[in-house]
Amino acid sequence: MGLIQLLFKDPVAFLILSVLLLYSIIFHELAHGWVAYKMGDPTAKWLGRLTLNPIKHLDLIGSLMLLVFGFGWAKPVPVNIENIPNRRKGLILVSSAGIVANIICAFIALLIYRVFSPEHSGMPEQIIILFARINIMLAAFNLIPIPPLDGSKILMGFTSESVTRFLVQIEPFGFFIVIGLLYIGALNPLINFFQYIILTAISLLLSAIM
């Protein structure tokens, strides 16, 4: 279901979900640029993308897709790996940064929820849980090793030149491959597996510190 349907059905829920989705994606993209900057690539900083200002990150087509189909994207933060001295390490860390940012957001949200341990689930508690779920979903989705998703870039950092070459060759068609596989449900088991791993890791960490 697209967000536009939710807008007419429940405007308050639409507003809350839109803000949570928007900033979960912004944190993800901002993390890519920040790690690249720290590793020697100032491209994102030069282009003004190291900001929480949503205007800088919104993509027109991605926003329309989200409204209509419930699946969208922000403008990818530009990164020039050539500016990073250790390119393989840079590729792995920069590509992982967005996923790690989403996992951290989910961890913080669930930590807040557990600290307050609400007996009754009101609106604030529901928002916290929703924020955690969105970020876990985004992290799991981006772990899929199909271009242009982050998982493919992480895979490139660990695999041979032949595998990297193959992933680069299919990248122009990657978006359509991902959409097609999502449509037929082929990616659901992998996404669910990644979500399980992420949630288990967060739960273990929460249990260890509380």
**Whole-number mean pLDDT:** 90
Number of strands: 0
**Residue fraction in strands:** under 5%
The largest sheet, given as strand count, sense and whether it forms a barrel, is: none
| N to C succession of SSEs | HHHHHHHHH
Number of helical regions: 9
Outline type: globular
Sum up the structure in keywords.
globular
Can you put this structure into words, describing what you see?
The chain has one domain (3-209). The chain contains 9 helices and no strands. With 210 residues, the chain is an all-alpha fold. It has helices at residues 3-9, 11-38, 43-46, 60-69, 87-116, 123-142, 150-158, 161-183, 188-209. Helix 2 crosses helix 5 (87-116) and helix 2 packs across helix 6 (123-142).
In brief, what are we looking at here?
This protein is mainly α and 210 residues long.
How would the blueprint of this fold be written?
Blueprint: H1 3-9, H2 11-38, H3 43-46, H4 60-69, H5 87-116, H6 123-142, H7 150-158, H8 161-183, H9 188-209
